# Entry
Amino acid sequence: MPLSEYEQRVLDQLEAQLTSEDPRLGSRMAAVSTPRRGRVALGVSGVVIGLALLVSGVAVSQLWLSLIGFLLMFAGAYFAFTKPNALPGDSAPAAPKKTVPRKPGLSERFQKRFEERDGL
# Structure
């Protein structure tokens, strides 16, 4: 179900606030990507085929077939849940980091208020 316009606006405001308060965390969160459907589907199919080989190997008492099935299951799960490595030529050169003056965080503001209250 898609977000309403109001929910999308609030989400965008929260994201902008997070990025302005902690640019490092904001950039790390923006870099996180979800796995692609094709990659997940291929990984899940590897797990299913590996499970079938593992059960077949146990049923016919063939250790090598069970081992291949287990390895295929492991490789499929690994493939589904990891993101692909970027090729060396895919990314643009990194721009120099800009130093942004850091605004006081929530805990620092609470500490300042607490100290001001004690001073009164």
Observations:
- The chain is about 70% helix and 0% strand.
